[in-house]
Amino acid sequence: MKLYYSPGACSLSPHIALREAGLNFELVQVDLASKKTASGQNYLEINPAGYVPCLQLDDGRTLTEGPAILQYVADQVPGKLLAPANGSFERYHLQQWLNFISTELHKNFSPLFNPAASEDWRNAVRQAIAARLGVVATRFEDAPYLLGDSLSVADIYLFVVLSWGAYVNLDLSPWPALQAFMGRVGGREAVQAALRAEGLVKD
Q: What are the GST N-terminal domain coordinates in residue numbering (predicted)?
């Protein structure tokens, strides 16, 4: 498999998931401005949408959109318990969280990375995100992870999105439960390996 990624982007979540799953894969970096891979290939030929992540299977088929890729990766190694079984209520609970993270958190971060956004707009976005973070923090009052006692791909996705706060002046200190969550997930071997591979932390 090949994972097309850009350092620190949302593609970091399937990257971490692949390492947690113990699957063999190749990382292919994409320049999102030029739409070229590190080898000079036209990325639009692989993913016409032009963004990451994209997972290319050994038979050439591709899968895009982070939540879909995360579930695919989890289903390759059911024994790792990165996702509940298909058809179970718990699986729909996982999908609930993946959708919440995607629509209520991930997309709300986008304006904060837009250099054209006014400070008033940025502040309004931060307030909207803060309201959503309060919802997530409540979940961690009685469980270490979103689905309970074990890490799932939803936790990986949440970790990546919350990590962007450091780049856009979004302070997590009002939510100690979220800070503790970031410490739990961030200290995992697979997470550290992915961060090193993408040049986000040094050895």
A: 1-81
- Closest C-alpha among 157, 168, 178 to residue 103: 157
pLDDT digits (tens, 9 = 90+) for 142-167: 999 999 999 999 999 999 999 999 99
| Structure confidence by residue, pLDDT tens digits, 103-148 | 999 999 988 998 888 989 989 999 999 999 999 999 999 999 999 9
Q: Tell the burial category of 67 from Cβ atoms under 10 Å away from its Cβ (0-12, 13-18, 19+).
A: buried
Domain that holds residue 72: 2-80+190-197
CATH number at residue 146: 1.20.1050.10
3-state secondary structure of 145: strand
Q: Dihedral of the CA atoms 117, 172, 166, 28 (nearest 10)?
A: -100
Residue 37: φ, ψ to 5°: -80, 170
